[in-house]
Amino acid sequence: MRYTALCAPAIVSMVLAANGHAETLIVNSYGGPYETIIRERIIEPFEAKFGIEVIYDAVGSASQDYAKIKATNGRPGFDVVVMTASQSLEGCKEGLLEEFSPEEVPNLEHLSSVIAGVAGPCGAVHEVQYLSLLYRTDKLAERPNSWNALLDDGLKGKIILPTFQNVMAAYLMEIFSVAHGGDLLENVDPGFAAMAKLAGQSIGFEQSSSVMETYIKNGDVWAMPFWNGRAQLLVDSGLPVDYVLPREGSIPLLATLNVPKHAANRDAALKFVNFFLEKTSQEAWVTGYKVGSGRIDIEVPADIRAKQITTEADLKALLLPDLAAVATRLSAWGERWERDVVAAAK
């Protein structure tokens, strides 16, 4: 059956074209502070340089956006979308995303091969976050430097965990697995054992990151795993919180720019991807959104560099699971999570 439904941004694009407006590009990403920063730091400079009007579509999470790409066979109504390395790999495998080439996106060559390889040929890594340990500075006497700090008796009933539907759960289990003698894929028994202990410390599980953060905002929770980009937003808001990359290491969340296979404005989309990977654009994004980068030649202030992934050494220190292999195990791991971890919290 041919797909005929058009989303609102696509209809707006058609109307603009019919009225003789300049070339347009529909970019799908996130709302809130993210939208404010990307408009100021990336989109407006892109429009000024290329004369291409960007229509911003802030509807949907990465998983919802990918579901739309699948449902429309690569014609979702947007031209560029921000997803993750996992969706990049799946979309490439299913032939739903464009494969980037250095000829069409020259700035790909400036990305660290350590990170670029994780996302595959259909994902342009434009941002690197990591799973951090977020904590209340007014509740903990000392700065925690180890994931094992979450197991301290003083934090019993003062932590919260993600449900397994949130990828943070699988990553946290893998981190604990490595920290306790296992590995990222084949021997994760130590990780599940540690998570069962951690469940006994927790007040429960939440799927949404936005809901999880309400617990630490109101003081019911004193420590929890959280993506460092969102953690930084809480720090910047003035809350008595801070975050660390614990000494056992962390798994990154690689945000990628993707172009659906049948994007209506393919050429403009490739220009946008290349522009976002420019050195100056990456510097603007890292200092504005306060995240890391896959480019190691960027120049950023020392306070940003101290907390973000910006060097080859930072990148090599990350734990990098084979995301394609992880995807094949998530179903079984999810069942085990319910059986071993959730049950331990009751």
Q: Can you tell me about this structure?
A:
- The protein is an alpha/beta fold.
- Helices cover 44% and strands 15% of the residues.
- The protein contains 14 helices and nine strands.
- The protein has helices at 8-18, 33-50, 62-71, 85-93, 113-119, 167-179, 189-201, 209-217, 228-236, 266-276, 279-289, 302-307, 312-317, 323-342, and strands at 24-28, 53-57, 80-84, 124-136, 159-162, 202-206, 223-227, 241-244, 252-258.
- Strands 1, 2, 3, 4, 7, 8 and 9 form a seven-stranded mixed β-sheet that branches. A two-stranded parallel sheet has the order 5-6.
- Strand 1 (24-28), helix 2 (33-50) and strand 2 form a beta-alpha-beta unit.
- Helix 2 runs antiparallel to helix 11.
- The longest helix is centred in the C-terminal third of the chain and has 20 residues, at 323-342.
- The chain is globular and about 60 Å long.
Entry summary:
The protein is α/β, with parallel strands linked by helices.
